[in-house]
Design brief:
globular
């Protein structure tokens, strides 16, 4: 492996480890850009398109995690692959979870309706995942050798192929409980972010706080959902 490839993998492993925190300064910057640009009217059709795009990304992540076995989808702070996922969503695209993340990010950018904010967000997204994906690919080459090399030839990195490269299901069991436990945090984060975008724009255009009660009710529903899943996940109800 060349020194540049080694450096890329090192950066990718570091970003993978801290991927929950690295977006924070970018989110702050985007929030500032939106603060400066608010007051224009985002078409309802664009808001709906953004919400549906983010929801599609969330559903893809949920669908993938309900099938992927523990230790095969890189959900912790270190790279791991006790088995190589090649079927189900992984038979169409190598990184279905990251495609889901991209759709969520793109949906939020549509809802923000700000070209500069979208450029910052998507540049950060592709910049970070450029390194993370290459670190993962180097790791999987070392773990699975020729099998993974063939998988790389058969399945695209980002743009899904229409037909499955490998037939069959990823897992005979669709574990929606596992997916719900893993996805309630990101769902809460992006959905509250989307609601905040709409609320801030309306306030910037002169709307009264009292007129935002439907958005406040929707945010409250999301928080109740989050609290219910968190309580169930940690078994607090069974301990009561």
């Amino acid at each position: 492996m060349s020194s540049s490839s080694t450096s890329t993998s090192t950066i990718g492993r570091t970003l993978f480890r801290w991927r929950s925190l690295t977006p924070i300064p970018v989110i702050v910057l985007i929030a500032y850009l939106l603060y400066r640009s608010r007051g224009h009217d985002t078409p309802l059709a664009l808001l709906i398109a953004g919400a549906l795009t983010s929801l599609a990304g969330q559903l893809l992540r949920f669908y993938t995690l309900a099938q992927a076995r523990d230790g095969t989808s890189g959900q912790d702070d270190v790279l791991e692959a006790r088995a190589l996922n090649t079927r189900g969503p992984y038979a169409h695209v190598r990184n279905p979870l990251y495609v889901g993340n991209l759709l969520i990010c793109a949906g939020l950018m549509l809802g923000a309706n700000d070209v500069l904010a979208a450029a910052v967000g998507l540049t950060f997204f592709f910049g970070e995942y450029f390194f993370i994906i290459r670190a993962e690919e180097a790791f999987l080459r070392g773990q699975h050798g020729a099998q993974y090399e063939q998988y790389l030839r058969d399945v695209p990195r980002w743009v899904p192929r229409f037909t499955a490269a490998y037939p069959g299901r990823l897992n005979d069991r669709f574990d929606w409980r596992r997916a719900l436990k893993k996805e309630h945090n990101p769902f809460t984060a992006w959905s509250l972010g989307f609601i905040a975008l709409i609320a801030w724009e309306r306030l910037a255009r002169g709307a009264a706080f009292q007129s935002l009660w439907p958005l406040a009710a929707l945010a409250a529903a999301v928080l109740v959902f989050f609290a219910a899943v968190k309580t169930w996940k940690r078994g607090w109800l069974s301990k009561a």
